[in-house]
Amino acid sequence: MNIEKFVQKFRDTLVNQCGVVGSSRILVALSGGADSMALLHLLKHSEMECLAVHCNFSLRGRESDEDEIFVQNICKEWDVELITERFDTTAYVTENGISIEMAARELRYELFNTICREKEIKLIATGHHGDDAIETFFLNLARGTGLKGLTGIAYQRDSIIRPLLFATSQEIIEYCNQQSIPFRTDSTNHETTYLRNKIRHQIVPLFKEINPSFFNTMQNNMEYLTEAWQIFMAEAVKVKEEMIAGTGDSLLIPIKQLNEHSQKKSMLFEILQPYGFSGSVIHNIADSMNGIPGKQFFSQTHRLVVDRYNLVLVPKSETDINQYYINSETEEIDQPIRLSIKTFKKRDDFSFSVNPKKVHLDADLIDFPLIVRTPNAGDRFQPLGMTHFKKISDFFIDQKLSLVEKENTWLLINNDDIAWVIGHRIDNRYKITSTTKTILEVSVMH
């Protein structure tokens, strides 16, 4: 191994791929393994000011403690400032219901970000190398994370830099050996109970057997896929801007326009994946969006409803089945929706509202307290202008309300009568007539 070429490649990568200029101050994730030890050594000898951070996840008993002691001794010898932190990772896993790998990641980066804020450091360097990127490729391929997941690991993302991605793990070990850099070996790296280790020890060696230049081939593949991803994302951004209505966590995705797009499934994946929908669920949504309306799909945080004309995405929440009361002295309520209530004598020049969000009812027929609730199965009322009863469910169909709109519709109840389908239609029995003396005005407030 040519050390000079390796070091020069590292420095070129640091500048050209990671965007590091001058003698930047860098937070270095130091586990004590060959990758992080080589990273710290290379940064230090590239005249970067380094602050090392070691996380003891308390997962390997004495071995974890020995790792901590090791990095303390090395940093003292190399004159590098070191911060160490010990975590009860097992307890964190139990409390949050996540995997050990995810727990360690969350704990690690929360610590890194806290230190960066306190120390005013803008860059975090990790020892990820090219073999890690290839393993990530296969992990994401197996999990179905879409095109983005096949781009591997980025040299730079936000404040995180990975200047060793150009190198193999073996090259890094050779660098350590030639530079007499000591390092620790994590005994769990050889256990195939972890999916990443299965890929590392069982799958990747087969590809190397087929193609001796497998590492370089995969580096090129991921570079091409990154460029393809960038082209695709430019189109995805355009589609989102032109097609999708709504803000924040609530979206309307027009089915007709989506159907007309030549890459509709890929576009749907990019739209929905950030909301926690898996690839298999998104595939089912795409197959269902031209079927019978009303089908629903769920992620951990969101619900998607296939409506007649749109895919309706909303945050997932428990259905509110509470009843809310309005007394005779009530002038305003905030729950479940904001309503203004007032009563006044009918004047000769009175004209009733034609706005469905502001209605006038015959107060002489009202028996307080009124109730605001959601529709129940079998609910019926007489829509204004009709003399016969109509089921609420049929009224919703006539109004072409989506499932989400139906669920967000409230009723104003007088005794057992539906006096007003709030925001839509009053009951004909409660309309203002020539005999009405007192008027109840109820308005939806914004």
From TrEMBL:
Gene3D superfamilies assigned to the protein according to its UniProt record, in alphabetical order: HUPs (3.40.50.620)
Span of domain Lysidine-tRNA(Ile) synthetase C-terminal: 370-442
One GO cellular component term: cytoplasm
Keywords: ATP-binding, Cytoplasm, Ligase, Nucleotide-binding, tRNA processing
Main localization of the protein described in the UniProt heading: cytoplasm
GO molecular function: ATP binding; tRNA(Ile)-lysidine synthase activity
Short name of one Pfam family: TilS_C
SMART domains registered for this protein in UniProt: TilS_C
One GO-annotated biological process of the protein: tRNA modification
Binding site for ATP: S31, G32, G33, A34, D35, S36
Domain of life: Bacteria
Broad class of enzyme this protein falls into: ligase
CDD domains named in the record: TilS_N
Known EC number: 6.3.4.19
InterPro entries associated with the record: Lysidine-tRNA-synth_C, Rossmann-like_a/b/a_fold, TilS/TtcA_N, tRNA_Ile_lys_synt, tRNA_Ile_lys_synt_N
Cellular compartments annotated: Cytoplasm
Swiss-Prot/TrEMBL catalytic activity: cytidine(34) in tRNA(Ile2) + L-lysine + ATP = lysidine(34) in tRNA(Ile2) + AMP + diphosphate + H(+)
Biological role: Ligates lysine onto the cytidine present at position 34 of the AUA codon-specific tRNA(Ile) that contains the anticodon CAU, in an ATP-dependent manner. Cytidine is converted to lysidine, thus changing the amino acid specificity of the tRNA from methionine to isoleucine.
Family: Belongs to the tRNA(Ile)-lysidine synthase family.
Domain remark from Swiss-Prot or TrEMBL: The N-terminal region contains the highly conserved SGGXDS motif, predicted to be a P-loop motif involved in ATP binding.
Designated name of the protein: tRNA(Ile)-lysidine synthase
Gene that produces this protein: tilS
